[in-house]
Amino acid sequence: MAGTICFIMWVLFITDTVWSRSVRQVYEVHDSDDWTIHDFECPMECFCPPNFPTALYCENRGLKEIPAIPSRIWYLYLQNNLIETIPEKPFENATQLRWINLNKNKITNYGIEKGALSQLKKLLFLFLEDNELEEVPSPLPRSLEQLQLARNKVSRIPQGTFSNLENLTLLDLQNNKLVDNAFQRDTFKGLKNLMQLNMAKNALRNMPPRLPANTMQLFLDNNSIEGIPENYFNVIPKVAFLRLNHNKLSDEGLPSRGFDVSSILDLQLSHNQLTKVPRISAHLQHLHLDHNKIKSVNVSVICPSPSMLPAERDSFSYGPHLRYLRLDGNEIKPPIPMALMTCFRLLQAVII
């Protein structure tokens, strides 16, 4: 039980790390004594809550254009409108913006005026989900920490798009139209602090190349990925959460070491074409292998041998760290092999 609690706390820590620096900056204290009467102007199309003077709510109003944004605004909500363009002019005084939500509009790449977004030097969060984008917009402000582009029509990432985004920690490109030739070897160059990359629900057949070295959460569910290159994980030595559910992975498509990668704590390979349980690391805690074509569990192959460095001896005194194993939806018939329980003495749940 203690181990499970520790794992949950670690997951929350990792996920929260992506947000923490941004949250601290977004919620800085504002000194209203520095504002003039003009700072409290409110566009007639929007709502300005008196108790939250740095926020501007313009969502669900059928807007076709972005109104002029007052200089005091930090948080701008424009989701669920009919906006097609992002021109520079409405933002010319909005030098303090940290957060823009433009989800569920009709914005295209042609509608984004060059410089309209990059001029926002303090912007941290940009939400452009559920629009009509066909490529990742560029240029973007260097300050940006989270870029949310889910459910667009993105099939292209222009060269150099991310070259100046060293502060970006989260990039969400799920449910777009990305294919393998959308990536060059230097596509992600510049993303020095990226921790979470989501490219689920695209049309990838191969693993994306040369991912940022600090990537800790990699989500590639619902693609058509058939294999993983040898030594692929050497480039992302910190990856802890790897999701490859609903792909076309086979035994032949896996590296010779399988997933024997010490950084991976949570591995999800559900709904693939595996016939054997792949090799795993002694550090792995959660393993999802349901709905594959596995017929039996060869414990002698999958039982990892932890390294016996002095610093790790106490950590592995009870054996490998696996606590959760899912094998249902395969061709395995109970009972569970006793050797499995002997190897993974910390197992708390096995679904078969």
UniProtKB/TrEMBL annotation:
Protein name according to UniProt: Keratocan
Location in or out of the cell: Secreted, Extracellular space, Extracellular matrix
Gene Ontology CC annotations of this record: lysosomal lumen
GO annotation (BP), single: cornea development in camera-type eye
Primary residence: secreted
Keywords of this entry: Disulfide bond, Extracellular matrix, Glycoprotein, Leucine-rich repeat, Proteoglycan, Repeat, Secreted, Signal
Origin superkingdom: Eukaryota
Similarity comment text for this entry: Belongs to the small leucine-rich proteoglycan (SLRP) family. SLRP class II subfamily.
Residues in the signal sequence: 1-20
Domain LRRNT: from-to ranges: 41-75
